[in-house]
Amino acid sequence: MRVHTDALSQRLAADIAAQRDLQAAAHLLEEALTLLRADSTLLLTHTMKRAPDRLLRLPEVEQLTGLRRSAIYEQMQRGVFPRSVKAGRRTATWPESAIQSWIADRLDGRPA
Known about the structure:
Helices cover 70% and strands 11% of the residues. By secondary structure, it is mainly α. The chain folds into 2 domains: 1-50; 55-107. The relative contact order is 0.08. This is AlpA family transcriptional regulator. It comes from Variovorax defluvii.
C-alpha cells in the first residue's frame, strides 16, 4: 500500500509541476504576442504615414535646422550631419527624411 501511495504522490507532484510549466509558457506566449502586435501596429503606422521623400535645398535645410551653411558642411565633414545628394552639376540637396531624423536625434538628446 505504501508503494502505491508514493507512486501516486510522485505522479501528483509531476502533474502540478507540468501545470505550472504550462502556465508559465502560456504567460510568455501571451507577452510575445502582445509585443508582436505592438510592433506590427507601429510598423503599419510608420508605413502608412511615410510620404514620398523630398529633396531639400540648402536654404530650407538651414531654416529647418537653424544651422548656417558653414556649420552644415563642417558637420557633414565630421560625419554627424546627413550627407548631401547631388541633384545636378551644381546643386546639393538633402533627403527630407534624413534631415527630420537628424532633428529628432537632437530633440531626443543625442549629441551632434
